[in-house]
Amino acid sequence: MTAVTDLSENEMLKNLFELEGLGISSEENSQDEKANNYLEQYAKSISFESGYVVAPFPLKENVADLSDNYPVAARRLMALQVQLSTNSELRSWYCKIINDYIASDVIEVVTTDNTSLSKYYMPHSGVWRPEKAKPLRIVFDASSKKKGELSLNDVVFKGESFVKKIHDILITSRSSNIILICDIEAAFTQIRLDESHKDLCRFLWLNDVDRPAVRSNVTEYRFKRLPFGINASPSILNMAIVTYLKSQNDQLADEIVDNLYVDNILLTASTPEEALAKYRKSKEMFAKIGMNLREYVSNSEAVNRGIPPCDRAPDGKIKLLGVRYDTVKDEFSIQTGVQSKERLTKREVVSQLNSIYDPLGLAAPLLVKQREIYSCNVNWNEMIPEELSVRWIRTCSAISNVAASVPRALVSGPVHTSQCSLWAFCDASEIAMATSCYLRHDDTSKVSSLVSGKTKLTPKKSKQTIPRLELLAILMGVRLCNNICTNSLSLIKEVNIITDSKVALAWIKSSRKLPVFVANQKERIDNVVKFLRKKHIKVNFYHVPTAENPADAGTRGLSATNWPNHSWLRGPRWLEKTPENWPLTHIDCITEQQSDESEMETPIAVVEISETCPANKSEKIIDLKRISRLTVAKRVVALVGKGLHKWVQSTNNNRSINIQTTLLRKFSVGSPITASDIAAAESVIIIQEQSGYKINDLQKRYPQKKLKMDDLGIIRYVSRLQNACIPEDTKSPIFIPYKSDLAKLIVADTHIKNAHCGKEQILTLIRQRFWIPRPSAIIKAYTRQCVVCRRCHGLPFALPEMAPLPKDRVIVSKTFENVGCDFMGPIESVTREKMYVCLYTCLTTRAVHLEVVEDLTTGAFLSSFIRFISRRGVPKYVRSDCGTNFKLGQKVIQKLFEDDENRENTVMSYCATEGIKWVFNPPGAPWMGGVWERLVGSVKRALQKTFGRKRLNFVQLCTAMARTEAVLNTRPITKIHNSDLSEIPLRPIDFLRGKDLQQ
């Protein structure tokens, strides 16, 4: 059994970039002040009782909301029991470790539930590695929780990150002749938990591992000591040890505080006698708080002989903070082997890069090409493109099992007698920025191996010139030098920053006003230089030819063939010569006019591997701010596109090399504008609006949405309706940036085309083709400013209390089975004749049917009624007001149903068979007709907003009513949610036809 922890994309990249930034990260990135203040107060709650450390958890205010997580822990225990039943060796080890916990008083059986705090049950599993002496490690999961609830890790302050200390301690280890390494035995379980916090660390275990995990076979335990697996455990351990050591007021205690990483301790010494004295004193110091220091090992054979075997680790190859260290040869080393499968996902690429642990940057040039690949424009779990897979295999095979090793010690002899200068070489290219540092012994001209080296890929989010990237590389170099000087005591007296960019040096020297970006980086560099000079360290800047700059390898990468003879690990040979033979130019010899070169250089392309070229953002094809209608914008772009296509065609006929254009070929050459021209123009406008957005950035901004780029380079949202029989634009709507000019034009065009319809109907219609984040705000803003709507909509009166709906409006029935009927008008025609509209509405689905009638006579109404039932079917119930034409019409219909002679008529025969019941509203209750009066108002507003005072003839009015009927039947009748684009609102048209009549 193996406990597999699949890190998320953010966690993997965070690990990669955090390791990459060791020694060069800004000190500005610290914890928030509230957390720091809380942790300072928390340290005061740590106590030392009877020779042991007692500590509570640093709890947040939301601890009261913590759920007990018992159901999750119980289910995980059931699954664990099944796994244990299939592996007897694993089962035996699991039981042994639990029994050891009980025997060593690490855990206890829960006997009572009386606790003032919440309780929490941690699931547990095992990491099984048969090749090790202790093949099983039990892991407790304090992040486990049900959806919507909190875990223990959510209610505990994590504390400071100790990753930054790795580089500091490694540099400290290189500044001394003799080092002594040890660790704390079972460090976490040496911290006693506060009595009130023990119930936060409960877990479930089996009485009999051979039986299923039913309640009668389960016992509840809780930790009495600090368990490993809680995110705050390393911080609690560190604060407990540091609090104790600071109380000792001892020089050795202060050294341990500086060189303590979780449960690993580094001690330095000048002589074996000093190292052995520190061994004895540190052992005694930690014994006072119940902690045992063990596995001491040194690079000095004399020191190792003086340590008893029970406290000594075996000589040979060990790991110092994860870095391979040979105590016999006194060397750090790294192996660069990675897998080279034919096809990898982006997750696997980043995971393999994470597996190469190189905090000192010894093999950084070998890994530049691989790290460039993980910036490819694909999703986290998608296969990287075949072209990149080939590059990955080629680069992996080129560096397969290449070893890099350097001597650990940077000095020989007493540290205080050495006069050293630190040399930082900096460089940048289109791919990466790099810096590498070397120590020169000025008295002997001897140059040490690489002290530390760093590479970083060039920024992806912004385009920068090469000189600006060189300036960033210098910033990396001065920060790395500051880190090395801080951790090398009084070893370094001078720092020299070397670059092959005269422009960057001119900027650093310049006293005139510089561009904002350049000025900011110059200020950061100046701040670090001032800090170094306060330590009485001299800082110089020099220019060097590119061929003499070892950092150049870190920007372009090295192959295994060129690796052995390159100067990255050993430093430049000319540095061992006398100063007059150095190929350097001091910054004072750089003229300030050379800083103008940056303005003439072309910005490099962003380092991002993509199958489509981004649109040029320097100039827009059409300025949408100057256009009020989307249809106008499309026609303008269509005319321009057709003209360009015609010009390109004529140009290609007279050229030996053809101009290849993808979008222009979609425009026709003929004179009239066709539908395909309008569609191509729309694509051009959309691409222009999307040009400022990258699909990777959008995917991070909207992690719950799946985005893709189509063949034209248009970004689309992939909904969950891919298998539905709906248009492609509805399955994958086009992304329109929020509050963009195009979004406003789309809203306006939809509003006007659909008779100035309401906000929810606009949203429904837009979603059939487009995805606009937070569209309701844009729609609401536009409809509020619509002059036509503001003129037509008066101030609303206070609404009366609503009565219960009648039965025929709430029972399940067919469309137009229960009908409401009303007249609206008169509407004056061109010839000043009066025309009317008869409105029929379904009382259950709110569908609408409109018929134009010449007058209010019974005959005209009956004709419209016959047309209605011929198209929509015969209703069972018809409701209306007490109009005289309706009363007479009802009597005529009854008479027709009772007249046997008329039964031969198909429609009337069917009506007589089915029967129609006519219900009149009481004369004194006009509100009972609100269901159709509301729709009469909608029809009137549509006519008024569309035609205003224009008079129509009979045919035109019939056409207008048909169009208005289609608009009203596509209005949403259910609630629309902004967040869920896959949820299509219900509309009357869905009951009539099952699809939109306007598509």
From TrEMBL:
GO biological process, one term: DNA integration
Sequence intervals crossing the membrane: none
Gene Ontology molecular function: any one: nucleic acid binding
InterPro entries: DNA/RNA_pol_sf (IPR043502), Integrase_cat-core (IPR001584), Integrase_H2C2 (IPR041588), Retrotrans_Pao (IPR008042), Rev_trsase/Diguanyl_cyclase (IPR043128), RNaseH-like_sf (IPR012337), RNaseH_sf (IPR036397), RT_dom (IPR000477)
Residues of the Reverse transcriptase domain: 108-325
UniProt superkingdom: Eukaryota
SUPFAM superfamilies registered for this protein in UniProt: DNA/RNA polymerases, Ribonuclease H-like
Pfam families, alphabetized: Integrase_H2C2, Peptidase_A17, RVT_1
Any one annotated GO CC term: DNA polymerase complex
Integrase catalytic domain: residues covered: 802-996
PANTHER family the UniProt entry points to: GAG-LIKE PROTEIN, PHD-TYPE DOMAIN-CONTAINING PROTEIN
Stated name of the protein: Reverse transcriptase domain-containing protein
Organism lineage string: Eukaryota, Metazoa, Ecdysozoa, Nematoda, Chromadorea
